[in-house]
Amino acid sequence: IGIYSYELYSVYGVENIIRIGSAGAMQDDLNVMDIVIGMGACTDSDFVRQYNLPGHYAPIADYGLMKRAIDAAEAQGTKYVVGNVLSSDIFYNADPTVNQKWRDMGVLCVEMEAAALYMNAARYGKRALAICTISDNLIEHTGCTAEERQNSFTQMMEVALETAVAAEELA
After folding, report:
1. What beta strand segments (E) does 26-90 contain?
2. Cβ contact 111:132 at 8 Å
3. Nearest-CA neighbor of 114 among 151, 157, 75, 85?
4. Which of 29, 62, 89, 136 is catalytic?
5. For 69-93, how does the pLDDT look when each residue is reduced to its tens digit (9 = 90+)?
6. Please, which residues have CB within 8 angstroms of residue 58's CB and are 6 or more apart in sequence?
7. For this structure, is 46 an active site residue?
8. CA distance 114 to 106
9. pTM value?
10. Do 45 and 89 touch, CB atoms closer than 8 A?
C-alpha cells in the first residue's frame, strides 16, 4: 500500500483513502467477524526511515474519517472497537513470542497496511483510515473459512462506504 497510496496522493490528487481488509485479533475480547477501526498503527516495518526523522513517529488515522466511521458503525448497529493496530511486514513470524509482546501493549490486531498508509497520508497532508474485519484470533486460534472471508465482510464494507460518502464534507 506504500506504493499505491503514494501515487494516489501525490500523482492523482486523491484526498481520502479508506483501507478495508482482514486482520488477526490479538485480544481475547475480539471475535471473528468483529470490526476494528485503526486509530493508530504500530509497525515492525522500516518504512518511516525514508523520512529521516530525528526520533520515532506514531502513525495515526485521520480523526475526521475515524469519527465518520464510528458514526456509521453506530448507525448501522455494527459492533466495533477503536484502537491501535499492528502493521507487520511478517506474515509468519519465526518468533513465537511476538504476538504476546504486542498484545501486552494493548494492540488489538495485526494487519499489513495501515502504518504505511497513515505515514503517506501525513506526509502529503491527506486523510487515511484503516477498517478491518477480524478473520482470525491469534490467541484463541480460531478463524473463519475462505468462503466466510469472501461472503461475510459486508459490515466493514458498509461502514467504509458510509464513511466515504460522509467524507465528502471534508474535501
Report:
1. 35-43, 80-87
2. yes
3. 85
4. 136
5. 999 999 999 999 999 999 999 999 9
6. 40
7. no
8. 17
9. 0.95
10. yes
Which of 64, 56, 25, 69 lies closest to 119, judged by CA? 56
List alpha helices for the chain, DSSP H: 2-10, 63-76, 98-104, 114-124, 146-151, 154-166
Cβ(52)–Cβ(138) under 8 Å?
A: no
89-147: pLDDT as tens digits: 999 999 999 999 999 999 999 999 999 999 999 999 999 999 999 999 998 888 998 88
Note whether 19 and 130 are within 8 A (CB). Answer: yes
Cα distance between residue 36 and residue 86, in whole Å: 12
- How far apart CA 15 and CA 124 sit, in angstroms, is 9
Q: Rounded to 5 degrees, what angle do the CA atoms 56, 2, 22 make?
A: 95
